[in-house]
Write a structure and sequence with these properties.
Length: 306
């Protein structure tokens, strides 16, 4: 990797720990069913981490540079209570936003997922030994483990599974990416979202894990609707002291985080993928459960080759 300029970090730093990749031979997993009892019984490798607040330096963090960007974007929050309203009204807003920020010629929303359940209550639930690993919890909680939603293989699987068949061959010839648009539905008072500067991530520290989606219609949690088919390969992250983690404190529903998940452009000129995870801020643990939505999108630059 080339040198990375040093930013003057804001004053606030949260000292916490993050959950990282644990190899299957040490008790980790190579695949799991999202939302299942087993998925919330997974083990990780825990390491201390410092999370730097970007407040005051927001403009220094860019989607194509570090792999994430904070953006002020107001919307009608009442629309988020209903999935059909989200698809009818919020999806077009998100498409317009991503075109504006990235200069893309086309944006296609894949799906959305709301996270509104309490992680401590869910952890307590799956301690019940009478519950089988395969059972669905119908809970969607903040993802407290360092990950990237799709690997290269998983991105292509997601592309083929979700892009209209008549467009696949044509769009595969141009540059495309997957970007998550993450928004709190209420002011964030617990489990803020941390992003790792993609330039500080070594490819050797990324490990593929298969996320299997539950059958369509089998859960009220929404994991069954994340993709049109049965799942995809994601990446979990091994801890490395080079990694630099950031977050935006006190996020409100008038703000979104744009997070790069995958990009076909591999010449080193843009961020390709960004590890992220919810983290425990010890000062916020007694606060109300975080409520958020992530909207997953394909972004296309049809004037650029793949």
């Amino acid at each position: 990797m080339g040198s990375i300029e040093t930013l003057d970090h804001p004053g606030k730093v949260v000292n916490t720990s993050l959950n990282y990749y644990l190899a299957p031979e040490d008790g980790g997993v190579s695949s799991y069913v999202t939302g299942s009892v087993a998925s919330y019984r997974r083990k990780f490798q825990e390491h201390p981490a410092q999370i730097h607040d970007i407040r005051g330096l927001e403009r220094d963090f860019m989607l194509e540079k570090q792999g994430f960007q904070l953006y002020h974007h107001q919307t009608d929050l009442d629309l988020f209570s209903d999935d059909e309203n989200i698809k009818r009204h919020i999806y077009p807003e998100v498409e317009k936003l991503l075109k504006q920020v990235t200069g893309a010629s086309r944006v296609y929303v894949i799906s959305h997922l709301k996270r509104c359940d309490n992680p401590e209550a869910t952890e307590k639930l799956v301690e019940d030994t009478s519950l089988r690993d395969a059972e669905q919890t119908h809970k969607v909680i903040p993802a407290r483990f360092a990950h990237i939603d799709q690997s290269d293989r998983g991105a292509l699987t997601t592309f083929v599974d979700n892009v209209p068949p008549e467009d696949i061959d044509r769009l595969l010839k141009s540059r495309w990416s997957i970007t998550n648009v993450w928004r709190p539905l209420k002011p964030v008072q617990k489990d803020p979202l941390a992003m790792c500067d993609s330039r500080t991530v070594d490819e050797a520290d990324l490990f593929p894990v298969t996320a299997v989606l539950p059958p369509k219609g089998s859960t009220t949690g929404g994991y069954d609707q994340v993709s049109k088919r049965s799942g995809f390969e994601l990446l979990q992250v091994r801890q490395n002291s080079r990694q630099t983690w950031y977050y935006a404190s006190d996020m409100t529903p008038e703000e979104v985080l744009l997070i790069k998940i995958f990009d076909t452009k591999k010449d080193g000129s843009v961020a390709r993928r960004t590890p992220h995870c919810a983290f425990i801020d010890p000062d916020l643990q007694q606060n109300r459960t975080r409520e958020s939505i992530e909207i997953r999108c394909f972004t296309f630059w049809e004037d650029q080759p793949a």
